[in-house]
Each structure stands twice: as structure tokens, then as C-alpha cells.
């Protein structure tokens, strides 16, 4: 942003605030939601002689946290539906540091600047990325004791994307596609997690991957992972990239399958390219957006193809880019409605929950190389010797013994789940 430096005129001390965003149970990369943007900004500010301090509102506040007299407060934002957490951070700033100028930046701020200002009550909204802090090492020292717990580093080798998918806001936040040829100078950890929106679209991707292969061979890095799915079209055009990804130490590759089941032959081709390069099918995941334009049945058809190919599914529940809340509760005892969270017109609350459940069970089957899933077996409610005996059975065989056996190869519509042991073992097999 061109006037970020204007905000810094006369500023001596900057407080960086990471709001108390909810923790994700699903992704270890998000486990601690490292505020990498703030850490990079801190490095930039320090290079200009400005003192910085970080407060992570998820952590317990220390007395010393308030012992700072900032002129400027920078608060980060992520998804629009985490707007409340950003508002709480602004309220916190206004209460404890009333003289400081409060600025919100990040994804929500960039997607809905006016709404962000009105909703949070901040003094200013900083739209887009701060270019001055792009090619800079993050200031991990701000994390204090947390620093030693973080053994990975988040990196961006590109910003923006070459595509414009309907459900994605990248083109608004990062409208220009910018690529780096090298990231060597930024590396401070052995494990790298790429937060690029479309890593393979980087025009220098071959050079970049070759650099990573060298860094891996010389043990500067140990492994890499891409947070986003690889662009299958690019992989099909240049299958050699899969070999370079493998040599560079990439793990758990993901491919995106956002469109119709009719494109299944292309997905298979992309999976074959990854397998040919040495990745195991069960370590590959296919990203699928659900609760969006394709209905439940088509998503299930896609999931079944994935099972036949032996790959996992990474489900991604659609939320509109302009919705400020998401109170979906995976443990809700009662059905939830559109009031609680976005339910697309062609989906129901039951289908959303069922698809999530199917994906979880599907992934357990893939990881354990089993032809069926059983809740009773997972919860160790079946005697161990029976469990072992059943393990290698086909679904057709095991359903004679386990009434809760779930078949990953069929469309599993919403239904009531069974809960007691007697419900799981079919008659004649009850203990
Ligand atoms: S390819 Fe990915 S990052 Fe690019 S527009 Fe589509 S969803 Fe967004």
C-alpha cells in the first residue's frame, strides 16, 4: 500500500495485535495461527528504528503487556466471518491505549474496508498487502516463549493468482500476480510451509524448486508443504514439476477439484503424475469446496472417485466472502439454520454435516487401507481379536459382523447414527 509509510510519520512505538481467532482442530499448519504478517511488519518497522511489541489476545495477558505506550496499533484480520474477534481487538486497544491510532489490515480489511471500519470502530483500514514487508525475515523474537515451539516457517514465493474462481477473494486482496525467483535469503527454519495461493503458477517455479532441492540436499531445509492445492492444469502441462516437488521434500501434496465430477479423468491424470514422481496415493489429498454450487450427491460422487484412487479428501465448507459470522457448531445437538451459518440454497444442514462425516470416515479408510469404516471399531468397542480379524475384510464380508460398517464406495445420505454396542454387532455376533 502506497501510504503505509505515511502512517509511520512521527511514530516511535507500534503495538501489533493478533486477535483471539478460533483455533483450528483440522490443520496443524494453523494450529497456532502464526501472525506471520505482523512479524514481517515488525522486522520492517525495526529496520526504520521503530520499537515494536506483539500482543496475542488468545494468550493470557501479562501485566507487562499493558506497560507500553504505542503511538500506533496495527491489528490483523483474517476471514470476514472472524470479524467479531477483530472488533474485540479494536475494543481492547481503545480501552487500554486510548491515545494510539488504531489500524486494521489483513484479509477482512481488504475485502470489506468500509464495513470493517464501521463494524470494528477502528481509526483506519489498511487495504492490501504491505509491500515494504514482503521480502523480509519475520521477527520471531516477538513471540517470546512461543518462539521455541514453532519449528516451521511460513513463506510466500508469490502473491495473487493467475485465476479468478468465483468463491475466492484473492483477486481483491492481491490483485497483481507477483513472483519471486528465490526465497533463500528469507529462510530461518528447516520446515517451510508455502502460503502461496497458486505455487505452481510462479513463472520461476522450476528455478525455485531447483533452489529448494539444493537447500534440501545441503540440509538447510528438511521438508516443504504447500497450504493450497497444486494447480492440476499446470502439473499436466509440466509433469516434471512433480519430480522437483518430491526432490525438494514436499509432503502431503494437495490438488484442487472445485468443479464438476465430469472432470474426473483430469484429476486421475494429475494423481498419476504425482504417484509417478514418488508420492503415495494415501498421502495425496483432493481439496473440494462443498456447500457451494455442486450439490451433495455430486460431491459424494467425487469423493467416491477419490476413494477408488486411494487418495484423501480435504473438504472446505463454503462461506460467502461478505458474511461476518459463522456459528457452525460441529457438535450441535439440534439442527442449525442459515441464521447460524451459511447453508447454500442447494444444501441442507444435515447434508453439510453428513458430507463432513463422510469425508472424515473416508480419510480414515484411506489412511488405514481399509475397505470400510466402523465407529465401534474406531472407539475400540469391538474386542481386539475381532477387530484384527475384520480389518482385512471387504465391506461385503464385514457387514455380516458389524452392522455399523460404512461403505466408502457408495453415496452415504444423512441418517440417524447408532450409539449402543448392541446396534453395532449384527445378531449372532453380539457378545
Ligand atoms: S486458483 Fe485458488 S487462489 Fe486462484 S482464484 Fe482459484 S481458488 Fe483462488
TrEMBL record:
GO terms for molecular function: cobalamin binding; iron-sulfur cluster binding; metal ion binding. Its cofactor is [4Fe-4S] cluster. Residues 32-125 form the B12-binding domain. Keywords: Iron, Iron-sulfur, Metal-binding, S-adenosyl-L-methionine. The keyword Transferase does not apply. InterPro entries: BchE-like, Cobalamin-bd, rSAM_sf. One of its GO terms (cellular component) is cytosol. It comes from the Archaea. The keyword Hydrolase does not apply. This is B12 binding domain protein. It comes from Methanobrevibacter woesei.
Amino acid at each position: 500500500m502506497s501510504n503505509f509509510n505515511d502512517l509511520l510519520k512521527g511514530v516511535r512505538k507500534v503495538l501489533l495485535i493478533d486477535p483471539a481467532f478460533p483455533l483450528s482442530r483440522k490443520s496443524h499448519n494453523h494450529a497456532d495461527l502464526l501472525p506471520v504478517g505482523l512479524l514481517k511488519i515488525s522486522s520492517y518497522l525495526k529496520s526504520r528504528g521503530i520499537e515494536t511489541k506483539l500482543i496475542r489476545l488468545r494468550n493470557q495477558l501479562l501485566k507487562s503487556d499493558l506497560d507500553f505506550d504505542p503511538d500506533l496499533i496495527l491489528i490483523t484480520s483474517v476471514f470476514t466471518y472472524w470479524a467479531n474477534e477483530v472488533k474485540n481487538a479494536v475494543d481492547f486497544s481503545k480501552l487500554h491505549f486510548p491515545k494510539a491510532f488504531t489500524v486494521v489490515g489483513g484479509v477482512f480489511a481488504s475485502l470489506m474496508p468500509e464495513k470493517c471500519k464501521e463494524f470494528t470502530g477502528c481509526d483506519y483500514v489498511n487495504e492490501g498487502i504491505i509491500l515494504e514487508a514482503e521480502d523480509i525475515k519475520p521477527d520471531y523474537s516477538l513471540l517470546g516463549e512461543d518462539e521455541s515451539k514453532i519449528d516451521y516457517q511460513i513463506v510466500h514465493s508469490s502473491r495473487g493468482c493467475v485465476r479468478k474462481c468465483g468463491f475466492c477473494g484473492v483477486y481483491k486482496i492481491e490483485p497483481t500476480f507477483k513472483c519471486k525467483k528465490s526465497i533463500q535469503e528469507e529462510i530461518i527454519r528447516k520446515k517451510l510451509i508455502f502460503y502461496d495461493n497458486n505455487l505452481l503458477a510462479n513463472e520461476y517455479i522450476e528455478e525455485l524448486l531447483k533452489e529448494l532441492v539444493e537447500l534440501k540436499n545441503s540440509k538447510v531445509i528438511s521438508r516443504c508443504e504447500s497450504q493450497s492445492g497444486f494447480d492440476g492444469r499446470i502439473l499436466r502441462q509440466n509433469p516434471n514439476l512433480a519430480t522437483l516437488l518430491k526432490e525438494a521434500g514436499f509432503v502431503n501434496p494437495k490438488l484442487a477439484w472445485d468443479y464438476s465430477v465430469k472432470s474426473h479423468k483430469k484429476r486421475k491424470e494429475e494423481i498419476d503424475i504425482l504417484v509417478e514422481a514418488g508420492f503415495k496415493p494415501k498421502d495425496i489429498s483432493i481439496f473440494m469446496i462443498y456447500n457451494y454450487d455442486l450439490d451433495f450427491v455430486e460431491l459424494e460422487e467425487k469423493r467416491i472417485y477419490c476413494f477408488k484412487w486411494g487418495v484423501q479428501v480435504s473438504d472446505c465448507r463454503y462461506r460467502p466472502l461478505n458474511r461476518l459470522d459463522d456459528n457452525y457448531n460441529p457438535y450441535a445437538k439440534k439442527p442449525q439454520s442459515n441464521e447460524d451459518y451459511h447453508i447454500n440454497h442447494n444444501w441442507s444442514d444435515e447434508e453439510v454435516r453428513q458430507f463432513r462425516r463422510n469425508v472424515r470416515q473416508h480419510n480414515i479408510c484411506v489412511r488405514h487401507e481399509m475397505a470400510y469404516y466402523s465407529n465401534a471399531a474406531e472407539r475400540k468397542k469391538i474386542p481386539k481379536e475381532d477387530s484384527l480379524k475384520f480389518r482385512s475384510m471387504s465391506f461385503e464380508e464385514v457387514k455380516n459382523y458389524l452392522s455399523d460398517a460404512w461403505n466408502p464406495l457408495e453415496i452415504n445420505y444423512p441418517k440417524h447414527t447408532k450409539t449402543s454396542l448392541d446396534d453395532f454387532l449384527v445378531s449372532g455376533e453380539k457378545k
